[in-house]
Amino acid sequence: xxxxxxxxxxxxxxxxxxxxxxxxxxxxxxxxxxxxxxxxxxxxxxxxxxxxxxxxxxxxxxxxxxxxxxxxxxxxxxxxxxxxxxxxxxxxxxxxxxxxxxxxxxxxxxxxxxxxxxxxxxxxxxxxxxxxxxxxxxxxxxxxxxxxxxxxxxxxxxxxxxxxxxxxxxxxxxxxxxxxxxxxxxxxxxxxxxxxxxxxxxxxxxxxxxxxxxxxxxxxxxxxxxxxxxxxxxxxxxxxxxxxxxxxxxxxxxxxxxxxxxxxxxxxxxxxxxxxxxxxxxxxxxxxxxxxxxxxxxxxxxxxxxxxxxxxxxxxxxxxxxxxxxxxxxxxxxxxxxxxxxxxxxxxxxxxxxxxxxxxxxxxxxxxxxxxx
Length: 373
Ligand code: ZLS
Ligand code: CA
Ligand code: ZN
Known about the structure:
Elements: E1 6-9, H1 28-39, E2 47-49, H2 56-59, H3 65-73, H4 79-82, H5 101-120, E3 126-129, H6 150-159, E4 165-169, H7 176-181, E5 188-195, E6 218-223, H8 229-247, E7 251-255, H9 273-284, E8 290-293, H10 300-315, H11 350-353, H12 356-370
Parallel strand pairs: 1-2, 1-3, 3-8, 4-5, 4-7, 5-6, 7-8
Helix pairs in contact: 1-10, 5-6, 8-9, 8-12, 9-10
């Protein structure tokens, strides 16, 4: 397995931001991940870079000036007034106006923009930003724990140099913000795998395929509870292989949301660390410039283990990994097994019970086949 030049973006401040007590989204997980990556001695094997923070102007490449201006000003004290009593910009309790919100967004977005620049310049084959992947953010509104859509900003940066970009989203939730941003273009294909049915954000059926020039260029793979590694792979591999064949992307952005793992606090799938990482391995094999981003993931120790293993996959050293965890700052969190693993459980796979997975796969492949004509 040949080596790849990997650029890894990390800002040591990112772990200090908090959405507030009791909020499931914990930026601290990025720091735990980084500590584990360091403990495995991976840092010397890649270019470890501190991203330049995104400016309000950078963020305005996608978001409206009015919304960006709001983000630069909002504080816990002014949130009520600046949101017109929770009716604009931040609606509902998923997106609090927490302390340091704009800085947090600048770090997350700065990482994805820098990753895209590093890929475009040819200085890296794979670029990683675990603080990115915030796929729900809309042009003029926050949604689902996401305020600034770092993914859209990264893809816009890639589009300056590349004709076609493929976006793949393995977060348990639908990648609605990214899909919407590129819904009418044939230069970006979006493909989201997600739980569908009484689940946030409620979009992402196979009827939603794109519009105008973008018709056919949005792929949705709606799934049910309890999907296993085997089932996941049986839809991921053929669909992605077909996309690579018909779309021929010049770069790929993979959102590695870790709430698709078994045992996630908000997720409902039964995918193991290795099953999740298989998606990374499959794309790395294709020899297309690749960006890996974070996303959801609410059982912190599982997120840290999986993104650490996926960093090893990017480096191509996963076969040399010692699965007993090395000592690290958060070692005791990994009790009682202290192993680099996220195991499956005994929940039912509702995708195979009624053959719904076969239908979903065939429908996606047919949509892709139609693009040839
Ligand atoms: O994809 O389901 C919802 C929306 C609600 C129901 C629940 N209430 C609390 C909020 C309004 C309709 N929201 C989801 C958003 C999931 C975002 C996933 C992001 C990503 O992984 C990418 C990063 C949701 N699920 C769970 C919660 N919200 C939630 C649970 C617990 C709490 C605490 C803090 C806040 C309010 C109480 C909250 C949200
Ligand atoms: Ca998804
Ligand atoms: Zn999610």
